[in-house]
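worker-3 :: picked Response regulator
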Amino acid sequence: MIRVLLADDQSLVRAGFKALLDAQPDIGVAGEAADGDEAVRMVRELRPDVVLMDIRMPLLDGLAATRAITGQPDLNDVKVVMLTTFELDEYVFEAIRSGASGFLVKDTEPEELLRAVRAVVHGDALLSPGVTRRLIAEFAARSKEPAGPEPLGGLTEREREVMALVGIGLSNEEIARRLVVSPLTAKTHVSRTMVKLGARDRAQLVVLAYESGLVRPGWLG
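worker-3 :: tokens ->
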């Protein structure tokens, strides 16, 4: 059972998500929070698998709450998915850097929300390639100057190659085709790279790809 915490200051939004999620045989709502402070407290108490976190909330906003959650090593298995009204909300990019596993617009189709919850638990790509590439392009424009390749010293050449392809927004299937390997092999390389770098998920791998200089803005081939 995938346990989800809903963090949104609008009770109607929470009620809609709860009805959808609780109707699934493999997903259940573990709790609800109306502000960021409550969300952080409930994550510590309930240890959900996924937090659906609204960006704009009172007391402590979703961005600060995400930092508080992802900054604790003992909560490393908790995945945070940001909820926003606008697909490219400026706060989303900082949220990704802070450890959020991705984001969804609030009016997303129910099937997409369910797919996202299931995908993020397994560390798979959360966003569609098109949305991912737009996100990466915007993130790249805002990102700081590359720190250099030193943090990637523990990676093999193939792992660097795979990380670069993740960094330009390719899915496991697209990476497999590019490298002429099986999708399972591509997924294995991605997983090993995340483990070596201590990345929570693919979203953080994208951030590291840019911040290390492995991928540069404009490399969206």
